[in-house]
Design a protein that fits this description.
alpha/beta; about 45% helix; 5-stranded parallel β-sheet; 9 helices
């Protein structure tokens, strides 16, 4: 089963993607993890990507696409994959669709987690990242997933007890707005990519799920759509 998952920053698509990956035992491919691997490994593509990420800008296609395509060719993707965080614009969607078609790889599902922009921003500013797994949900504004507060005032992951941190760009209104400007752009941005797949037809099923309820409720809707 090969799946693309879309959702604005703050929608919980990473969490839902991890649940789908575990359920179907497929490779969970996150563009951010690919960037970190290349950046941490000091590859030339990684060095170029870091300059853009540090500014809160979208990494250009001529850097992103080679890294993504290389990842899809690895052995753990042979039995299926879930791609999270790519494509981020219409051109990338068109390029990916062509690459998959040329390789005779079917795209079975496109999942869209739908969330209003104002709610997505609130979720970003309050979220905290676990040192062990960024998909462990921790948020200081929502009781159901609040981190553990330690005696010294520090916060620990509610799932595994790992140390938590906040990304600098999660506390930067301009950076958040810039990322959301890209996602919600229906002309050339990520929403344009989603709409490309909606209008493409063929064997790919496109499923839109409301991301505003609890994690469990969203998961139930996603799983029902994949049956």
């Amino acid at each position: 089963m090969n799946i693309l998952i879309f959702g604005p920053n703050g929608s919980g698509k990473g969490t839902q993607g991890a649940i789908v990956q575990e359920k179907y035992n497929i490779a969970h491919i996150e563009s951010g993890a690919i960037f970190r691997k290349n950046i941490g490994g000091g590859t030339e593509l990684g060095k170029q990507a870091k300059e853009y990420i540090d500014r809160g800008d979208l990494v250009p296609d001529d850097i992103t696409i080679p890294m993504i395509l290389d990842r899809l060719k690895e052995d753990d993707c042979k039995d299926g994959w879930l791609l999270d965080g790519f494509p981020r614009n219409k051109v990338q969607a068109e390029t990916l669709a062509k690459a998959l078609s040329d390789a005779d790889i079917n795209l079975d599902y496109v999942i869209e987690i739908v969330l209003p922009r104002d709610i997505a921003k609130l979720r970003i500013t309050g979220r905290r990242l676990c040192e062990n797994d960024n998909n462990h949900p921790n948020h200081i504004a929502f009781d159901a997933i609040k981190p553990v507060e330690n005696a010294d005032g520090s916060l620990s992951c509610r799932v595994c007890g790992g140390a938590l941190s906040a990304r600098a760009d999660d506390q930067d209104d301009d950076a958040i707005d810039k990322r959301h400007d890209i996602y919600y752009d229906e002309n050339t941005g990520t929403m344009a990519a989603v709409n490309f797949f909606k209008g493409r037809g063929g064997d790919t099923a496109v499923v839109s799920v409301d991301g505003s309820p609890s994690i469990g409720e969203v998961t139930e809707k996603v799983m029902n759509a994949l049956k």
